[in-house]
Amino acid sequence: MQVGSILIENKTGKIISFVGGRGFNQSQLNYATEVPRQNGSTMKPLLVYAPALELGLIQPGSIVADLPYKRMINGKLYAPTNYGTTSTSGAFHGFETARAALAASHNVPAVSVFTRLSAKTNTAPDYLKKMGITSLVGSDGYNVSAALGGINRGITIEENTDAYTTFANNGNFVDAYMIDHITDSNGKVIYQHKTEPVNVFSQQANYEMLDMMRDVFKYGTGRALPGMLNFPPTGLENRYVTGLARLMAGCFKPEYHNGRLEWVRA
After folding, report:
1. Domain count of the chain?
2. Residue 39 near residue 155, CB atoms below 8 Å
3. Residue 17: which H helix or E strand, with range?
4. Rounded to whole angstroms, how far apart are CA atoms 107 and 148?
5. Which pLDDT belongs to residue 231?
6. 252 contacts 7 by C-beta, under 8 angstroms
7. Which helix (H) or strand (E) holds 7?
8. Helix, strand, or coil here: 97?
9. Is residue 48 within 8 Å of residue 39, measured between CB atoms?
10. Which residues constitute the domain of residue 182?
11. Is-contact 230 245, C-beta < 8 A?
12. Mean pLDDT, consecutive 10-residue segments, the chain of 266 residues?
């Protein structure tokens, strides 16, 4: 098993620390910054819900359908189901709010919203690019499976974690960095990093996205996490998590954001 993790300061993009793997003797790859993997359900806020909120396609209380979904793509049937189910035994939940669909990480509503989003604009992947995700290739971000993180190469933990800091910065992306400044032998600064925020989402859409993600902790897939981490009752509203079913989790509060991913095989 391998693991990668990274901790980023939201306001500046400063990489505070990272875990590149379980040991140099096992692998010389940096699993935090070099190894792309599909990011699963953590893609839903980035590519689906936040852009849909931005374009006015949905609101947190909008009704979406978690019902059987079938579509022919390149001659093959695409029929997504919810985690832990199959198309024949799948448990669907009928009509629900977009807020509830994200909290429970239901797959079909995310695909349905992304289908509507793609019909309105063909620039949905541009939101990912604005948030520093550069590992996309080919049709990544356009195919419907992208709504569930189904992309060709995947993205790195650094990219995924850094993208989520956008929500902590009122909708502005701040690129992550490791080198703050460089001085010469005389102590003169010859390089100083400068933070240059990029606006991705309006403050309203960003606030709504954050408010939806809070419910992941309240009653969604992350409801057990506060107890496991012994979070105190106060201040819990400032920590968010989504996509736990894929073993890729991101938690952040206003100052920092942490992302991690585990692999069963190195």
Report:
1. 1
2. yes
3. strand 15-19
4. 7
5. 41
6. no
7. strand 2-9
8. strand
9. no
10. 2-263
11. no
12. 87 91 87 90 95 97 94 86 69 94 94 94 92 90 91 91 92 95 96 95 96 88 67 37 38 60 48
Q: Looking at residue 238, which CATH number applies to its domain? A: 3.40.710.10
Angle at 37 between CA 167 and CA 109, to 5 degrees: 55
Q: What is the DSSP string of 146-208?
A: GGGT--SS-B-HHHHHHHHHHHHTTTEE---BS--EEE-TTS-EEEE-----EE-S-HHHHHH
Please name the residue that has the structure tokens 């703050």: 180
Integer distance in angstroms from the first to the last C-alpha of the chain? 5
Query: How far, in Å, CA of 41 to CA of 43, rounded?
Result: 5
Which one, of 235, 177, 157, 134, lies nearest residue 11 by Cα? Answer: 177
DSSP class of residue 49 equals: I
For residues 248 and 5, give the distance between their C-alpha atoms in angstroms, rounded to a whole number. Answer: 10
At residue 100, what are phi and psi to the nearest 5 degrees? -70, -35
Asked if 50 and 209 touch (Cβ cutoff 8 Å), the reply is yes
Q: At what angle do helices 203-218 and 157-168 cross, to 10 degrees?
A: 110
Tokens of 17: 């620390």
